[in-house]
Design a protein that fits this description.
By secondary structure, this protein is an alpha+beta fold. It is 32% helix and 27% strand. It has five domains: 103 residues, PAS domain (Beta-Lactamase), CATH 3.30.450; 97 residues, 2-Layer Sandwich (Beta-Lactamase), CATH 3.30.450.20; 185 residues, GAF domain (Beta-Lactamase, 2-Layer Sandwich); 236 residues, 4-Layer Sandwich (Phosphatase 2c, domain 1), CATH 3.60.40; 118 residues, Heat Shock Protein 90 (2-Layer Sandwich).
């Protein structure tokens, strides 16, 4: 309403005239229109207040007029003349309304007529009880059909809409009626009771109706049918949701679960994703037949007990007749025929027929010419049934989702290949030797980007010694696993030379430098792709001697092991760190530590603690504490490793982890006998006598003859070519080990002597008599050793 109308009491004035046009009575509104009170007007001709041209004694007519108030400007009004009867001298009733007010009223009436007369925008008036009072829609459009006998006026929302939709709409309208706060563009389901299977979505706006005193007289509702727009948005959201799977997890099961969540509840009430078992393993799915069943990889919705659960096999009985194995999706809007066909087939019903389902949609998951499986959807209750439009949309969603699933399948294959290669290159997990009990644990990463470069090894050496190795190669995937295999092989080869840890790492560093130069000479990898390069790899190498109790450790950029001695607090071994392999710079240094029997060593990769959010010191403290807590005598090395990992890895790590636990032992008392002889030929006989006597003490007389020959040849060679003193040591273990040490660092060389040669047969004889033999450098020269099998008693 205009400001003029707001100032008028009753928006105008009413005057009662007699047949001569004389004012008989009037309403208080004349004060505003004519500037005079009613008592001043009664008895005067109405023509006196009209503009020039009006005659006395003439009754006014409908239409526009100009009033001349006393002492004020002229006022444009509209007159409405109503004839009166019944005597009393009254001839007519004149209603005078200012022009501006009348224009506003006409616009209001035009708006109401426009809203009431069109059907694009729905208009419904509700009384305070939310019963329908008026609507611009005929009964067949808003509620029950015209021939159903249910009249629209007076109907409740529950009589027009399905109960759950009626409840949602009524909740909004009651809130408006109680608070007076309007709602705008609320998108709600509004399916008719007479057609509950037909989807119907409206955009609703509502405001409270009030009388002049502000009391609620009902609620006015404007709504538009936005079903098509909603369906288009939902279709777009479904397609985009399927495309977003490309940006999600590359785990095929997780991708299948994501697809099921995309489909429910927007597209269906229940969804199952059935994939070929080969695809779940990362392999090509091939032809799906009786020999290649599907497996239910994921489900969504309130899953009923009568349907096959996750993990169950879904057998394809006749692939040639199954529509899903064609190149299009199939909608089954009515399940009556299918229920009848599967009435006696319990297995078939468990695959595709939940009790509450009313319609079914099956979409193939096909990518790059491969059929990976199928997505099956069901709708239940009063929900609109699947139709051909849904099948068309399903084909689009399935095609996009299949690309994501196939990417995940190929990624799974790469990850499995890298993991299989990685595990095949690692040694056996548990190693039991006289010097130690060791157990290595390899925990693969959850993704292929974290697999490939970690390794550990336990290498038995000569004279009961044992070497422990843990390393890490930069990069990931198959390339890193292959690089790791090269390094592990190189370490095993170098360890066979019985080199000290620092010398072994120096040789390994040279090898890495040459390999990295060869890698750079090869074709460069694509931008952003990091291959498994050996350059910058880290490694820690330790050699433990159970005879002396010494453990020599050297590191190439690798963290030091945790040392937990009996009755002592765990600590990190004080190892002098060296640079990573191939980087160059400082030389490698070895640290010798005295180990008590029962000491536990824990070698690890730094990735073990990489996922934790604490600082470096806190992470190291946690590792140290966990090793000490787990290092109980009654626990095996394998059990100890599992306890440590259980506390440090509460969930699957993002990068692979290796942990090597070794419990060190000493040889039993009396298992070692040692002598030293001068560089005198007579020492040979004394050496033979010492050996024979010791073997008698050990009750190994059967080995006396061969051991005498071995000692005689080796001591003679040492005295002849190296001088003295000559050390002799016998070690009784799983084999009998004979060691000869001298100050020379010239390696012995086995050769075949000619018939005419007077010598040169000593090492040849040693090789024939011993099970294994070899030599190693020491800080004072070299040691030649030979092993013999113990006699069987």
């Amino acid at each position: 309403m205009s400001e003029v109308a707001a100032r008028l009491s009753g928006d105008g004035a009413a005057l009662m005239l007699d047949s001569y046009g004389t004012v008989l009575a009037c309403t208080p509104g004349v004060v505003t229109l004519l500037g005079a009170r009613g008592t001043e007007l009664i008895g005067r001709p109405f023509a006196d207040f009209l503009a020039a041209g009006a005659s006395r004694g003439m009754l006014p007519r409908d239409g526009r007029a100009t009033l001349r108030p006393s002492g004020g400007p002229a006022v444009r009004v509209r007159l409405k003349v109503l004839p009166l009867g019944g005597g009393l001298g009254a001839q007519c009733l004149v209603w005078a309304v200012p022009e501006a007010v009348a224009a506003d009223q006409e616009q209001d009436q035009a708006l109401v007529r426009a809203l009431s007369g069109q059907t694009e925008i729905g208009l419904v008036l509700h009384d305070p009880d939310l019963r329908i009072v008026r609507s611009n829609h005929p009964p067949g459009a808003l509620g029950p059909p015209a021939d159903s006998g249910a009249g629209l006026p007076g109907a409740t929302l529950d009589e027009v809409l399905v109960p759950q939709d009626a409840a949602a709409v009524e909740k909004q309208l009651r809130q408006v009626a109680q608070t007076g706060v309007p709602v705008t563009d609320q998108v709600l389901q509004a399916r008719y009771r007479t057609a509950p299977e037909q989807e119907r979505v409206i955009s609703l706006s509502a405001l409270r109706l009030e009388d002049r005193d502000g009391r609620s007289t009902g609620v006015a509702v404007l709504f538009r049918d936005v079903t098509e727009r909603h369906q288009a948005q939902r279709r777009q959201a479904l397609v985009e949701g399927a495309e977003k799977l490309l940006l999600g997890s590359l785990d095929i099961v997780a991708t299948a679960e994501g697809l099921a969540r995309v489909l429910v509840p927007e597209y269906g009430d229940l969804a199952a994703i059935d994939l070929a078992e080969a695809a779940l393993l990362g392999e090509e799915p091939g032809d799906l037949s009786l020999a290649a069943p599907l497996r239910r990889a994921a489900v969504a919705g309130s899953w009923p007990a009568e349907l096959l659960p996750v993990g169950a096999l879904v057998r394809v009985r006749d692939p040639e007749r199954e529509p899903v194995y064609q190149r299009h999706a199939v909608a089954v809007p009515d399940l009556t025929e299918l229920r009848a066909a599967l009435a006696d087939d319990a297995e078939g019903s468990r695959q595709v027929l939940p009790d509450a389902a009313t319609s079914l949609l099956m979409m193939p998951l096909r990518a790059r010419g491969q059929l990976l499986g199928a997505a099956v959807l069901w709708r239940c209750g009063n929900r609109a049934r699947f139709d051909q439009d849904d099948a068309t949309l399903g084909a689009q969603v399935g095609a996009r989702a299949a690309i994501s699933l196939d990417n995940a399948r190929r990624y799974t294959r790469e990850r499995r290949t890298a993991e299989i290669l990685q595990r095949s290159l690692l040694p056996q997990a548990d190693v039991q030797v006289s010097a130690a009990e060791a157990a290595g644990t390899y925990v693969p990463a959850g993704t292929a980007t974290g697999i490939g470069g970690t390794w550990f090894d336990v290498i038995p050496l000569s004279s009961c010694r044992v070497a422990f190795v843990v390393g890490d190669v930069l990069g990931h995937g198959v390339e890193a696993a292959a690089a790791m295999g090269r390094l592990r092989t190189a370490v095993q080869t170098l360890s066979d030379m019985d080199l000290p840890p620092e010398e072994l790492l120096a040789h390994l560093d040279d090898l890495v430098t040459r390999l990295s130069q060869a890698e750079r000479a090869a074709s460069a990898p694509p931008a952003g792709h990091r291959v498994g390069s050996v350059l910058g790899s880290t490694c820690v190498y330790a050699v433990y001697d159970p005879v002396t109790g010494l453990c020599a450790i050297a590191s190439a950029g690798h963290p030091p092991p945790v040392l937990s001695a009996p009755e002592q607090s765990a600590c990190f071994a004080q190892v002098k760190p060296g640079p990573p392999l191939g980087v160059g710079g400082l030389p490698f240094e070895s640290t010798e530590l005295v180990m008590e029997p029962g000491t536990l060593l824990a070698f690890y990769t730094d990735k073990l603690l990489a996922h934790r959010q604490d600082g470096t010191e806190e992470r190291l403290q946690q590792l140290r504490d966990q090793v000490q807590a787990a290092a109980r005598k009654d626990r095996s090395a394998k059990q100890t490793g599992h306890v440590v990992l259980r506390h440090l890895l509460p969930q699957a790590p993002e990068q692979e982890v290796a942990l090597l636990i070794a419990r060190l032992y000493a040889l039993p008392l009396g298992s070692v006998a040692a002598w030293e002889f001068p560089a005198d030929p007579e020492a040979v006989s004394r050496a033979r006598y010492a050996v024979t006597t010791q073997l008698a003490v050990w009750q190994m007389e059967e080995l006396a003859f061969t051991t005498e020959l071995l000692v005689s040849e080796l001591v003679t060679n040492s005295i002849r070519y190296a001088g003295g003193p000559v050390g002799l040591r016998l070690i009784r273990d799983k084999t009998l080990i004979c060691e000869i040490s001298d100050p020379s660092q010239t390696q012995p060389r086995l050769r075949r002597a000619l018939v005419t040669d007077e010598g040169g047969r000593g090492l040849f004889l040693v090789a024939q008599l011993a099970q294994r033999w070899g030599s190693r450098y020491t800080s004072h020269g070299k040691t030649i050793w030979a092993e013999q099998q113990l006699p069987v008693h």
